Amino acid sequence: MNITPRLSAPAALRNRGPILDVLRRVLPEAGLVLEVASGTGEHVAHFAAALPGLDWQPTEPTPEGRASIDSWAEGLPNLRRALPLDAAAPGWPVERADAVLCSNMIHIAPWAAAEGLFAGAARLLPTGGLLALYGPFRFAGHVLERGNADFDASLRARNPEWGLRLAEDVAALGARCGFGAPEVVAMPASNRMLLFRRAP
After folding, report:
1. How many CB atoms neighbour CB 18 within 10 A?
2. How many other β-carbons are positioned within 10 Å of the β-carbon of residue 48?
3. The pTM of the whole model exceeds 0.85
4. For residues 81 and 101, what is the distance between their CA atoms, to the nearest angstrom?
5. Which InterPro entries does this chain map to (predicted)?
6. What is the pLDDT of residues 129-179, one digit of tens each?
7. Mind listing the pLDDT tens digit for each residue in 100-122?
8. Angle at Cα 53 formed by Cα 48 and Cα 58, nearest 5°?
């Protein structure tokens, strides 16, 4: 009996539309978009189908994840086969990109993954190139929404190195890696997109 490798995440189906709305505004018309931590592949398949002028390179550290991504990619000529990538590693399997997208990763990984993400994006992107982050964030001086507060507590209980990141810390990390201050876009379900541009 054949078992399909295609995985599905309900959250990805809910948020892919709002994320796409932002990407339509901020991505270039052509070029290569590297997605770090593509998960099931539902996001990148949706974006590749909607934005056929762009080439999309998905990545995921696990073989199961890459198999799922490649299953979702069937029939999409602008969606490349998934590559293994550890965001925290000093070497990435891609040498250049016009934009980098990462959704729902830095809060379920050690801070070293965020540091690696920014360092890697800085190596790959041209001046003005986009690094787009999506997910839940904390903001200094603001009380977390109840759902995000519960989520943050559950993440920290599972792993003390995990948890919702302070947006100001992420922005400071971006500045150290050569990015300008982010544009912050409010998203449904108390999420945000932080849009960074590679500085000259």
Report:
1. 17
2. 23
3. yes
4. 16
5. DUF938, SAM-dependent_MTases_sf
6. 999 999 999 999 999 999 999 999 999 999 999 999 999 999 999 999 999
7. 999 999 999 999 999 999 999 99
8. 35
Structure tokens at 27: 């991505």
pLDDT, tens only, 54-89: 999 999 999 999 999 999 999 999 999 999 999 999
Distances, alpha carbon 198 to alpha carbons 24, 50, 181, 194, 195, in Å: 19, 25, 10, 13, 10
User: Domains in the chain, start-ordered, CATH in brackets?
Assistant: 19-197 (3.40.50.150)
Instruction: Using alpha carbons, select from 65, 11, 76 the residue that is nearest to residue 39.
Output: 65
Burial bucket for residue 49 (CB in 10 Å: 0-12, 13-18, 19+): middle
